[in-house]
Amino acid sequence: MLNSGHLIELAEQECNADTAGAPRQANLRRAASTAYYAVFHELLGTIATTFVAANQRKARALFYRALDHKRTKERCKRLGQSPLPREERSFFEMEAFSETLRLFANEFVALQERRHSCDYDPDLKTTREETQEIIDTAQRAIQRLRHAIDTEKAPFLSYLLFGLRN
Amino acid sequence: MTDLDELKAQTELILARIFPAVEIRTIEADETLDSGGDESLRITIVVRQRPPRAEAQKMSNVVDQLRSWLAAKGDDRFPYVKLLSEAEERRLQHAGE
Question: For residue B42, what is the nearest residue in chain A, using CA coordinates?
Answer without folding.
Answer: A110
